Amino acid sequence: MKSKVHFSTYCIIITIVVMVALPAGIIATRVNTDKCILLSVITAAVTLAGLFYCPVSVSVDSNAVRIHRMLSGCKTFKLSDIEAVDACYPSAGGIRLCGSGGFFGYWGYFSDILIGQYFGYYADRSQCFYIRLKNKRQYVISCENHIELAKAIQNNLK
């Protein structure tokens, strides 16, 4: 079973604004070589990080859950390593410890009062589920059919 990641309007707007603002800053600083080079390096690093972690789709089979990412390939979780899975709704008041709060989705380390600390790979907070591994690491993932995907994972765990 495979499901695409849906990007919320907020994520789309943030991504567009950042992708317009960074090149605009480069153009505005082109007369000051040092600032222009620094902003160009920052732009490249931020864009590559966004594309590296950006979730595109999620799939589950009888062996693993896979998050398909834009540049870096799949992040794979073996079903034998998964302790629990359930639908969730990350709080808007959650704390981003390190990562993106909308640029190419939500990705990175977050802390939430209900979920706890987790690594996020999601683009629409209303379409999320979490995976807790046996080593107690948690991941929040989103996709269009998040309820069905969580059920499929749950069924494969039994």
Topology (elements, then pairings):
Blueprint: E1 2-4, H1 9-28, H2 33-53, E2 55-60, E3 64-69, E4 73-78, E5 82-88, E6 95-102, E7 105-112, E8 116-122, E9 128-133, E10 138-142, H3 146-157
Helix pairs in contact: 1-2
First-residue to last-residue Cα separation = 17 Å
Series of H and E elements: EHHEEEEEEEEEH
Beta content comes to 35-45%
Count of DSSP H/I helices:
3
Describe what you observe in this structure.
- There is one protein chain.
- The protein has 158 residues and is α+β, with helices and mostly antiparallel strands.
- The chain is 34% helix and 39% strand.
- The chain is built from three helices and ten strands; from the N terminus they run βααβββββββββα.
- Strands 5-9-10-8-7-6 form a six-stranded mixed sheet. Strands 1-2-3-4 form a four-stranded antiparallel sheet.
- A hairpin with a 4-residue loop joins strand 9 and strand 10.
- Helix 1 (9-28) packs antiparallel against helix 2 (33-53).
- The mean pLDDT is 94.
